[in-house]
Amino acid sequence: MLNRNAEALFWIGRYMERAENHARLIDVHYHLQAEDERGLDTSGPGDEAVDAPCKWMRIVDALGSRNSYEGQYGVYSEQDVLHYITLDRDNANSLVSCVSHARGNLRTIREKVPSELWDTINAFYLWLREKQPDDLMRESPHLFYGRIREWTALFQGFCQSVMPRENEWHFIECGRYLERAENTLRIIKAVGNAASGEGWNNTGAYPYLQAVLKSVSGYQSFRRFYADGMSVEAIVEFVILNAVFPRSVHFAFHSLDEHMRMIELQDKQLRAAHEKVIRQVGKVKADLACLEHDDMIVDRNGSIVDHLLDACETMGVAFAKTFFRMGEASA
Fold it and tell me: What pTM was computed for the model?
């Protein structure tokens, strides 16, 4: 019973964080699109038509879904990509699928969590389920995806304000922060791939990295720390290493470690496996602690981001082997 409950709670946290991340990815894309359109002023008349599919390909690449998308839609267009990411039930990682999966997991454990969580996620799902593809084009994308972020923030707010600080809460938070670290890294990587030149760490990538700040709602916080000293390296350093910004990779892994340590277990064998996972999280924290500003300057191929993404995947596998019954995963 513990295994099934832990799995459901962990994936509730991951799916709700993933839904918010999809909305943030849309923001990234529109920021980049605005930058690209400014550059078209000095380009030829046919450049916009040629570049348009590439713009929308960025989002699909960020989700690792290019083969699935192209097998279903063939070509890239704004309406098809937005539908695929938001309302396509054949896409297991679309917004509606993520919210549906989270709702299904929560339904199985309704008696173990406050009723406010079910009321929020059920209302969120019913609202999203009624949306049609034309709604995405008719409404402002910024307003629509802003509403998505408001729903996920409401759910997170109830988790923070009404859930007892017991295992159930800690499992949700473990899922949330592991997903958050991975999502932040994927945004950096996707924007880096879109940037011209040698990757995400070159002077031409500056407007792309600025879009990263806006996508994680970190632009104003960044300016507080760095004032007018904005650079590509400073932006990457802030998003990865800042200790107090809630969406940084550093903050996510330290929060993951904190919630992992707060999980209380009775079974001796399970406790031993639990401690092993904590040590793995500790290794990633140590890697982050060793990184310095100069490392961001010399890492021109994004190997730091790739290493941390691999660590996130390892954490997910280790968590599943420790707490879940393999073969019953809800992902």
Answer: 0.88
